[in-house]
Design a protein that fits this description.
The complex is a heterodimer of chains A (461) and B (259). Chain A is of the alpha+beta class and 461 residues long. Chain A contains 11 helices and 12 strands. In chain B, helix 4 (109-117) runs parallel beside helix 8 (217-231), helix 6 (182-194) packs across helix 7 and helix 6 (182-194) crosses helix 8 (217-231). The chains are: A alpha+beta (461), B alpha/beta (259). Chain B: Residues 28-141 form the Response regulatory domain.
């Protein structure tokens, strides 16, 4: 069984947005460069300081050794203990002299005899030598010089140097940190800037997904981005064309159906006129034909209307009095009470569509609710409200949205043959109401059936 | 809208004030449609409704037929091969006030308005049903007979004689006959008879077109525009046929001119 394994992207790549990844890459890069510089700087500075220190210590040791030599050569003084103590002088340098296997040590207790034997051996054999060693946990520089009949040793601590170097490294580390932060900031800025076209792309795609098929990306000057924008726009064009084509299809079909329908309708009209000349069977056939040709015709015109552009042409808007619309629609239909409350405001609307809305609601009540019993017109919060009540079976709560779908039969199968409706009436109502930015819903009628409530906002007058 | 073609005032008027139908004779209808089956079905059904039907399959054929055999009404499909319906409509209108009903593919604004501005008196949308069409034709043919007893009506400097079907403009020291189609004439008479009172759009549609209000005010608005182009000094600033916003139209009375 084939399994689809997710692409193994790095954790960073998978979880962080692109801007952050770019920012982090910038920060890492800048830290790497400044870190390298810092390491080099630290090395150069520390070796320079160290060599200066060594040089100083060595020179000092040489001068001191010379003094010791002088004393040693002077026959009047045979043991330069005072001198050794004087040279150490309470400082942090330890001075030691080995003569005839005996150590004379002065200064901070340094375990001078424990110094590397090679160093001492080298000095003993007449070669000045120095070595960095760790004594008692402290980095020290030991300088061993040959003197008359012995070895003169000075051990100088390097700890002072160490603190300078620590300060230097702290400064360098801080520099690396700051450069990392700057890199992060720069990277996030650059990332956002570079991704701005992507943000536009995302917004355009979101608009498109929300149904705005006119969403397009602006033309891009950038050679890298131009193809992306062009591709997106081309895809959008294509999509829009397809959507429109699909939407037009029903319209085109209905359009084409009208020529044969004209022939049908008129031929049936001739037959109907001659109904009395026909045999009873043929009469029944003509009646059936007549009824269904009529329904066919209504369906085709409803389909045409529903596949039309929903937007209302500015020139079709006029100030409409809903009371007029309702009174006119109710017109010849018997048994409907028109109930007008106070003075409902006039609305700026397409009168043809308002007529259609009210007609369809009355038709719907006639087909499914035994006919409308009351039509109410009243002011709503932002315009006018129309209520169409019937005394039929009503519409269950769970179907109240569904009945506004095309060809929805309100879930009541088998009623189709009785109703004579096209299944598009309420869908058209919903569409026309939506085109006017209005609302339509179904409630329970106090007469026991369904109440369809349509609210049309006043519009801008 | 200044592009509305005005018929030349000197054009020969073939059907002036009412056609040539003898009383009791069948109203003659020319059906122009390129679909043979539709022509046949409409012929049969209109014949059933009591009309004398002739047919043409193209604009050219229609013009030839009309030159030879006058009719009372033309039913003109706007989608025709060759010379299109709008052109045919304009040519027919330029030749006289023969009533024209156009057949539009859709009842959307643009096509209907284009057809009405080309001079059509009325329109029907596909599919055309003979029964409804018959009512329109009858209304249109009847249109030349306004039901008023007055011999002369006046709106501003325009004089209307309903019986004779004459409209005269007394303007700039002279008198000129204005040639109106019967729809425009009937509209003007309806407004003049009301004597300055508002006539609602619904009433005008019902009285002139015999429409039980269909909510289609384009029909009315286009004809009012055409009427204004013919009788107003400045059609963009009408002084004779006034719009009453949200309600209808009214003819100007003396008080309007004085005020």
């Amino acid at each position: 069984m084939p399994t689809v394994s997710p692409r193994r992207a790095g954790l960073l790549q998978r979880q962080l947005p692109m801007t952050w990844r770019v920012a982090i890459a910038f920060a890492a890069m800048s830290m790497a460069i400044t870190g390298l510089l810092a390491v080099v700087t630290w090395h150069l500075a520390s070796s320079y300081l160290l060599s200066r220190r060594e040089q100083g210590a060595t020179t000092q040791a040489a001068v001191d050794a010379h003094l010791v030599q002088e004393v040693l050569r002077d026959p009047r003084r045979n043991w330069p203990v005072d001198l050794i103590q004087g040279l150490a002088g309470g400082g942090d340098v330890t001075v030691a002299l080995r003569r005839q296997g005996t150590w004379t040590v002065s200064g901070p207790a340094q375990d001078v005899p424990a110094l590397p034997a090679e160093l001492l051996a080298l000095a003993g054999s007449g070669t000045p030598a120095r070595q960095r060693v760790v004594a008692a946990g402290q980095p020290v520089l030991a300088v061993a010089l040959p003197v008359e009949g012995g070895v003169y040793v000075e051990v100088a601590p390097l700890s002072g140097l160490d603190s300078s170097l620590r300060f230097l490294s702290a400064v360098l580390a801080a520099g690396v940190g700051v450069s990392g932060l700057l890199g992060l900031g720069l990277g996030s800025w650059a990332g956002r800037r570079a991704l701005r076209p992507l943000t536009e792309l995302r917004d355009a795609a979101a608009r498109m997904a929300a149904g705005d098929l006119d969403a397009r990306l602006p033309e891009q000057d950038d050679a890298d981005l131009a193809p992306l924008a062009a591709t997106f726009n081309r895809t959008a064009d294509d999509l829009q064309w397809r959507v429109q084509r699909d939407a037009r299809f029903a319209g085109d079909v209905s359009h084409e159906l009208r020529s044969p329908l004209t022939t049908l309708v008129n031929a049936v009209a001739i037959l109907r006129r001659r109904r009395d000349e026909l045999t009873p069977t043929a009469q029944q056939a003509v009646d059936l034909l007549d009824a269904d040709v009529h329904r066919f015709r209504t369906m085709v015109s409803d389909l045409l209307e529903i596949s039309r552009d929903e937007r209302i042409d500015e020139s079709d808007l006029e100030e409409c009095d809903m009371v007029d619309v309702v009174t006119h629609a109710v017109g010849a239909r018997p048994g409907i009470v028109v109930d007008v409350a106070t003075t409902p405001p006039k609305v700026l609307a397409d009168r043809r569509r308002l007529d259609r809305v009210v007609e369809n609601l009355l038709d719907n009540a006639a087909h499914h609710g035994g006919g409308a019993v009351r039509v109410g017109v009243s002011p709503s919060s932002d315009g006018v409200r129309v209520e169409v009540d019937d005394a039929g079976p009503g519409i269950p709560v769970e179907l109240r949205k569904e009945v506004f779908e095309r060809f929805s039969r309100g879930g009541i199968a088998g009623r189709r043959e009785d109703t004579g409706g096209t299944g598009l009436g309420l869908a058209l109502v919903a569409r026309h109401v939506r085109a006017h930015h209005g609302r339509v819903r179904i409630e329970e009628s106090p007469f026991g059936g369904a109440r369809v409530v349509v609210e049309i906002p006043r519009g801008t007058t | 809208m200044t592009s509305i073609p005005r018929p030349a005032r000197s054009a020969p008027v073939r059907c002036a004030a009412g056609g040539t139908t003898a009383p009791g004779a069948r109203t003659r209808v020319l059906v122009v449609d390129d679909d043979g089956r539709i022509r046949q079905a409409l012929s049969l059904a209109l014949d059933d409704e009591g009309f004398a039907v002739s047919t043409a399959s193209s604009g050219e054929e229609a013009m030839t037929l009309l030159a030879r055999d006058p009719v009372d009404t033309v039913l003109l499909d706007l989608m025709l091969p060759g010379t299109d319906g709008l052109t045919v409509c304009r040519r027919l209108r330029a030749r006289g006030d023969l009533p024209i009903i156009i057949v539009t593919a859709r009842s959307e604004s643009a096509e209907v308005i284009a057809g009405l501005e080309a001079g059509a008196d009325d329109y029907v949308s596909k599919p055309v049903v003979a029964g409804e069409l018959a009512a329109r034709i009858r209304a249109l043919v009847r249109r030349r007979r306004p039901d008023t007893a007055a011999a002369t009506l006046t709106i501003g400097d325009v004089e209307v004689r309903p019986d004779e079907g004459v409209v005269r403009c007394h303007r700039d020291g002279g008198t000129a006959d204005v040639h109106l189609t019967r729809t425009e004439f009937r509209l003007l008479v309806e407004l003049a008879v009301a004597g300055g009172k508002v006539v609602t759009r619904e009433d005008l549609l019902r009285r002139v077109w015999d429409y039980d209000y269909l909510g289609d005010t384009r029909l009315l608005d286009v004809h009012i525009r055409r009427l204004r182009c013919k009788i107003e000094r400045d059609p963009d600033h009408p002084a004779l046929v006034l719009t009453v916003r949200g309600s209808g139209y009214r003819a100007a009375v003396r008080a309007d001119a004085d005020g």
